[in-house]
Design goal:
Elements: E1 2-8, H1 20-33, E2 40-45, H2 55-63, E3 70-73, H3 76-79, H4 83-95, E4 99-102, E5 107-108, H5 117-145, E6 156-158, E7 166-168, H6 170-184, H7 189-198, H8 204-214, H9 229-237, E8 245-247, E9 250-251, E10 260-261, E11 268-270, H10 280-296, E12 318-320, E13 327-333, E14 338-344, H11 345-350, E15 361-362, H12 363-386, H13 394-430, H14 436-466, H15 474-491, H16 496-502, E16 503-508, E17 514-518, H17 530-550, E18 556-557, H18 559-568, H19 579-587, E19 591-593, E20 601-603, H20 607-614, H21 627-637
Helix pairs in contact: 4-5, 7-9, 12-15, 13-14, 17-20, 17-21
C-alpha cells in the first residue's frame, strides 16, 4: 500500500509557502508518472517540523508495521527539520525494509548513494534555528523597551483606540480585591476558589472568551467554568496588580523546548507602568503571609466568609511552647455564651502522652493581651522609625543566634534525658519479676513525650533558619505598621490583617500565658509580661471595688451596683463576673451578706480601714485618689512615656 505524508508549519517562510493541497498535488502527479496510486494520506497541519511528536507522523510510523510499504513526501523539510532525527529516520526506513521517496530532493531509500543528504537536512535545521533567533532578538528588543504588547491579565483590558494603554475593568477588580481580602482574613486558595465559584464570579478564561467573541475571534482555548486553586494563586502572585509590568519571565533554551522561569534579576521590569488595583503594602503583606504559611504548613482558616467574623484571627502565628505545634481554634456553645479558645494541636489530637498540657488560652484574653502590648509599643515604634538605620537591626541577628543556641541546648538536654531514661529502663527490666509490660508502657510514654518535645524544638530551629533578616524596605513597613497601631488605638479593635502585619509569633506556655513577638525586632524594645499585666489589672479592679464600697454612703452594696460603676469606668465586668470580687470582700470582712435582696451586702468596716486594705493591692493609693483617677491611670497609662522603650510595667 502506498501512502503520502504532508505537513505545514506556522513558522514556514511565506516565500517557500506550499499548502497542504499543493503538496498532495505534487505527490499525486509523481506517483501517477511512475504508475502508482496513493492509497492513504497522513497529514500534520500547523505543526513544526523540529518536533516529531506529531499525530499524523506517529500514526504513519505505526502503520508501517501493518500495511504500508511505500511513503511519498514532497521534500526533507516536510518530513522534519531536526538534522539528527531525520537521518535516524532514514536509517529506520532502511532497517525496516520500507520504501521512502522524497520527491524534490531526489531521494529514494532503495538507492541511498546521494552524499549530500546530510547537508540538506542540516540546512533545514539551520533554517528553523535562524528563524527562532531572529524572532527571539526582535521580541527581546521590544521587551527591553517595554513595548511588547501582551495579553493583559484578569482585571485589565486594552484601550480600543490605543492598544498600548491598559485600563482597569471595574467588575473584575471587585473579585481581585475580594481574593486579597479573603486571603488576609485567613482563607486558603481552595476556599477562595469555592467562594468565587459559588458566587458566580466569571473565571479569567470565561472573560477572555467573551472578549474574543466581541472582537469576532474564536480560539480553541479551553474555558474553565469553575475557579481553581491555581487561578487564585496566580492572582495573588502577580505583581501586575500593583502596576508592575514584567516581561521575559519565561524563556526556552532550545527550539520548541520547555519554557523555564527566568531569574528576577534578568527579567525586564517596569514599575508604575499602569494603574494599580492592589496597593503595594497589601501585596507585600500577602507575599510575606504566603511564605509564612508555606513554612508552617498552614492550611487556611475554617472561619466564615468576608464580612463575617473569623473565629480564629490568630490562625497562623499561635504556637505551643512545649511541643512547637500550632494551637487549634475551638468554639463551644455554653448555656450563657459562645466560648472561643485555642489549645495545642498535638494535645488535642494525640493526648497528654505527646504534649502534657492543653496550653489553653481564651481568645478574649489573648486579644486583650495583644491589644495592650501593641498599644504599649506605639511610642517605641515611632522612635524606631525616626532613628531608623539598618545597623540597628544587627541586634536582631544576634537575638536570632541566641535563640538558636538556646534551642540547641534544650534539645541536647532532652537527648541526655533519653539516655538516662534508657539506662534506667534496662535496670528496672532486670529486676522486673513479671512487670515487664507495665515498665515498657511507662517508659515508652516518657520516651514519646521527650521525642515530641525534641521534634517541636527542631521545628522552631527550622523556622529560625528560614526567617530572612529584614531588608532596607523595613522603614516603609514600619510606617505602615505605625498607621495600623494608630488605627487600633483609635478603634480599640484588632483584625486578622493587623495581626499578620504586626505579629511575628505568639508562643503559649502550659499556664496559658502568651509570649508575644512583634516583627521588625520591636519586641526587644518593650518589656512585657502578660502574667504581670494580669496581676496589675486584677489588683487595680480589687482596689477600685474597695474604693467604691468605701465611698458608698448607703451602708450597703450589691453586685449590680458595683458592676455598673466598674463598667462606666472602662472595665468590662458583668454582674456575674463581679461576684468573685464580692467573695474576696466577704473573706476580708468588708462585706456581710443579708437576707434582704434589695440590700444584699452590708458594709461592716469603716472607710479608713477599707482604704488601708486597698493599699495592699495598690501601695501608692491615698485617700485623695478617686476611683476615676485609678481607672484612668491604668487604662491610659499604656500610652504614656513610662510604658515605652523597655521601661516595662
Amino acid at each position: 500500500m502506498n501512502a503520502g505524508y504532508v505537513r505545514l508549519s506556522r513558522d514556514d517562510d511565506k516565500r517557500n509557502y506550499v499548502s497542504i493541497e499543493n503538496q498532495k498535488l505534487i505527490i499525486n502527479q509523481y506517483a501517477a508518472d511512475h504508475g502508482m496510486v496513493i492509497d492513504r494520506w497522513y497529514e500534520d497541519d500547523g505543526i513544526s517540523g523540529y518536533i516529531f511528536d506529531r499525530p499524523g507522523f506517529q500514526q504513519m510510523m505505526a502503520d508501517l508495521d501493518k500495511d504500508i510499504n511505500t511513503v511519498y513526501v514532497k521534500d526533507f523539510s516536510r518530513l522534519g527539520r531536526h538534522n539528527a532525527k531525520v537521518l535516524l529516520l532514514l536509517d529506520e526506513f532502511q532497517e525496516r525494509g520500507k520504501h521512502l521517496v522524497v520527491i524534490d530532493d531526489n531521494y529514494d531509500s532503495m538507492d541511498s548513494s546521494d552524499d549530500t543528504i546530510g547537508i540538506k537536512t542540516w540546512f533545514n535545521e539551520r533554517y528553523v534555528k535562524d528563524t527562532s533567533k531572529k524572532i527571539k532578538r526582535a521580541i527581546g528588543a521590544r521587551q527591553k523597551e517595554g513595548t511588547l504588547i501582551t495579553r493583559p491579565p484578569f482585571g485589565y483590558c486594552r484601550n480600543e483606540k490605543d492598544k498600548t494603554v491598559l485600563e482597569i475593568v471595574p467588575k473584575e477588580t471587585e473579585y481581585i480585591k475580594k481574593i486579597y481580602d479573603l486571603y488576609l482574613s485567613g482563607s486558603g486558595y481552595r476556599k477562595i476558589a469555592t467562594y468565587l465559584t459559588e458566587h458566580g464570579a466569571p473565571t479569567p478564561s470565561m472573560i477572555q472568551r467573551e472578549r474574543e467573541i466581541e472582537e469576532g475571534r474564536l480560539s480553541k482555548r479551553q474555558v474553565a467554568s469553575k475557579w481553581s486553586d491555581a487561578m487564585v494563586k496566580e492572582i495573588l502572585d502577580n505583581d501586575f496588580y500593583i502596576g508592575t509590568f514584567r516581561l521575559k519571565k519565561r524563556a526556552r533554551n532550545t527550539v520548541h523546548g520547555k519554557d523555564k522561569r527566568v531569574p528576577k534579576e534578568e527579567q525586564c521590569i517596569f514599575e508604575n507602568h499602569h494603574p494599580a488595583i492592589i496597593d503595594k503594602s497589601t501585596f507585600a503583606l500577602v507575599q510575606e503571609l504566603k511564605e509564612k504559611r508555606n513554612r508552617t504548613n498552614y492550611r487556611g482558616s475554617r472561619g466564615q466568609w468576608l464580612g463575617s467574623e473569623i473565629p480564629n484571627p490568630f490562625g497562623s502565628c499561635l504556637f505551643c511552647k512545649d511541643c512547637g505545634s500550632r494551637l487549634t481554634p475551638i468554639k463551644r456553645q455554653t448555656s450563657s455564651r459562645e466560648r472561643k479558645y485555642y489549645i495545642c494541636t498535638t494535645y488535642n489530637t494525640k493526648g497528654r502522652r505527646y504534649c502534657s498540657k492543653a496550653h489553653l488560652i481564651e481568645e478574649e484574653n489573648l486579644m486583650e493581651d495583644v491589644l495592650t502590648y501593641i498599644k504599649m509599643c506605639r511610642n517605641a515604634l515611632c522612635e524606631v522609625i525616626s532613628t531608623y538605620d539598618l545597623k540597628d537591626f544587627e541586634a536582631e541577628k544576634k537575638t536570632v543566634e541566641e535563640k538558636r543556641l538556646e534551642l540547641h541546648t534544650a534539645i541536647n538536654e532532652r537527648k541526655n534525658q533519653l539516655k538516662v531514661l534508657l539506662t534506667q529502663k534496662v535496670k528496672d527490666l532486670a529486676i522486673a519479676a513479671g512487670n515487664e509490660d507495665l515498665i515498657n508502657e511507662t517508659y515508652d510514654s516518657m520516651q514519646k513525650d521527650l521525642f515530641a518535645q525534641i521534634h517541636g524544638l527542631e521545628m522552631q530551629i527550622k523556622e529560625l533558619n528560614e526567617t530572612a533578616i529584614e531588608t532596607p524596605d523595613v522603614k516603609d513597613k514600619l510606617k505602615n505598621a505605625l498607621e495600623v497601631v494608630d488605627k487600633i488605638i483609635a478603634g480599640g479593635s484588632l483584625d486578622r490583617r493587623d495581626i499578620e502585619l504586626l505579629i511575628e509569633k505568639i508562643v503559649v506556655n502550659e499556664d496559658g500565658m502568651p509570649e508575644i513577638t512583634l516583627k521588625y525586632g520591636l519586641s526587644n524594645l518593650i518589656s512585657y509580661s502578660p502574667a504581670d499585666e494580669m496581676n496589675r489589672r486584677e489588683n487595680t479592679i480589687i482596689a477600685v471595688v474597695m474604693k467604691l464600697i468605701a465611698e458608698d454612703e448607703r451602708g450597703y452594696t450589691s453586685a449590680k451596683y458595683l458592676s455598673e460603676h466598674i463598667t462606666d469606668l472602662g472595665f468590662k465586668k458583668t454582674k456575674q463576673s463581679i461576684l468573685p470580687y464580692i467573695e474576696l470582700m466577704k473573706g476580708l470582712g468588708i462585706l456581710e451578706p443579708t437576707d434582704n435582696p434589695l440590700k444584699p451586702y452590708n458594709i461592716v468596716k469603716s472607710k479608713e480601714t477599707i482604704e488601708q486594705l486597698a493599699k495592699d493591692y495598690l501601695p501608692d493609693l491615698t485617700a485623695e485618689i478617686t476611683v476615676k483617677q485609678i481607672s484612668d491611670d491604668y487604662l491610659h497609662g499604656i500610652s504614656d512615656n513610662r510604658w515605652h522603650a523597655g521601661n516595662g510595667i
